[in-house]
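Data card: per-record layout.
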Amino acid sequence: MHIDIITVHPELLASPFEHSIMKRAQEKGLLKVEVHDLRDFGFGKHQQVDDYQFGGGAGMVMMAEPLVNCIEKLQAERHFDEIIYLTPDGKRLTQGTTNQLSLKQNLLLICGHYKGIDERVREHFVTLEISIGDYVLSGGELPAAVLVDAIGRLIPGVLGDETSALFDSFQDNLLAPPVYTRPAEFRGWKVPDILMSGHFAKIEEWRMEQALRRTEERRPDLLQNLDKL
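The structure for this 229-residue chain is written out next.
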């Protein structure tokens, strides 16, 4: 998979992809992430990429022309399955969305900044708008890093255990069950006997019961969605 990211702050995206799972994914050749500085397409000696809003109002807006020039340059190099704008008013990111995106070959992410981007870019180029939650950040760089991580770990071969991602929270609209590791007893707190029984069918049954219970307690809305599947 190839993911391109357009941003006015490329330095904010250096660290997330240079460590841990995302680093290994790129070293294996399973994922390539390229970050593009929008200011390379800006105007004048200050490489301007933003301007005041028409109609007045606080906050600057990212201009259409630098963004479009950057997008079209990248489109000339490869076809994008989705051009994604990270924005608070986008579709809320879910595991289902990351599952779908992990099957794509080329993605282009646009990181908003200031008051957002010129609406004409959204109308004519953006194919999907994503929000990582009902709150506002200073820019789209952190959401872009979240999205890449959530997608990248689903690419076959990225995780050491191929089945690991299948049992994450939200994969089946349930929260993950409790997990334990050694020692079997710590400060008098014991691991449930069933997990050390070696009876895998009963262990899976226990895990499903725990997942349902945890989801009912913490995210009952997910169970409503489960009924619709």
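Known properties of this structure: The longest strand covers residues 82-92. Residues 169-228 form a domain with the Trp Operon Repressor; Chain A fold (CATH 1.10.1270.20).

See the next section for split statistics.
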